Amino acid sequence: MPRPRSENARQSVLAAMRRALAGDGYDAVTIEGLAAEAGVSKQTIYRWWPSKAVILGEALLEGDLPGADVALPFSDDLAADLRSWFATAGEHLSRTENVELARALIAVTATDPELGAALNRRFADPIVSWVVARVARAQEEGAVRADADPTAIADQIVATTSYAALLGRPLTAERADALVDLVMRGISAASRD
User: Mean pLDDT over all residues of the chain?
Assistant: First the structure.
C-alpha cells in the first residue's frame, strides 16, 4: 500500500515546479532538480507523479500560468477583437519558454484525460467563454448569422493557437489576419445576402 502524500512535501514540489518554470523554462526542469529544490527524494516524486508533465499540470491547477491574465477585448468590432486576441496569443507564443509550456500542457492533456480536462476548464474555458459571448453579441447586433455556432467558433480559435504551439509555428499578424478574414467570411450575416 503506497504511503500517503505529505502535504508539505507535495506543496514544496509544486512550488519548485512553478519556480523552475519562471526561471529556466519547462524544458530545463528535471526530476532531480525538482527533488533537490523541494527537499524530497526522487523516489518520493516518482511515487506520487508519473512524469514532470503531470507535476506541471497539478502545479498550474493550484497556481498561476505565466501570461494567463491577459484582458480580452470587447469592442464594437468582432473582427478587430479577434485580431487583437490572436495578436496577444501570437506575441505570447513568440517566446520559446511559452511554446515549451504550451506543448507540455498539450502533453498532459493527451496523457492524463482527467487532469487535461481540469486544465482546459481553468485555462481554455475563459477564452471559449469570451469568444462565445463576443460572437453572441455580434449575432444580436445582426453582424453574424444566427445559425453560426459560437462554441464551434471558440473551439476552432483555441485549436488554432494550440496547433501553432504544438508545431512551433508563429501566429504572425499575417496568419491572424487570414484566419480572422476566413472566420468572418463564414459567419458574417452579409455573407448570406
Answer: 87
Question: 115 is written with which cell numbers?
Answer: 487532469
Residue with cell 471558440: 154
Instruction: Name all domains of the chain by residue range, CATH numbers in brackets.
Output: 7-62 (1.10.10.60), 78-192 (1.10.357.10)
171 contact partners, CB below 8 Å, separation of at least 6: 86, 89, 90, 93, 160, 161, 164
- Among 13-22, 58-67, 122-131, which is the least confidently predicted range? 58-67
Altogether, the residues listed in the chain come to a count of: 193
Angle, helices 150-167 vs 173-187, to 10°: value is 160
C-alpha–C-alpha distance, residues 70 and 81, integer Å: 13
Distance CA 59, CA 54 (A): 8
Q: Which long-range contacts (CB under 8 A, 24 or more apart) does 125-133 make?
A: 126/72, 127/72, 127/85, 127/154, 127/157, 127/158, 128/154, 128/155, 128/158, 129/154, 130/72, 130/74, 130/85, 130/154, 131/157, 133/74
Candidate from 37-46, 73-82, 93-102 with smallest mean pLDDT:
93-102
Tens of pLDDT, residue by residue over 108-136, are 888 888 888 988 888 889 899 999 999 99
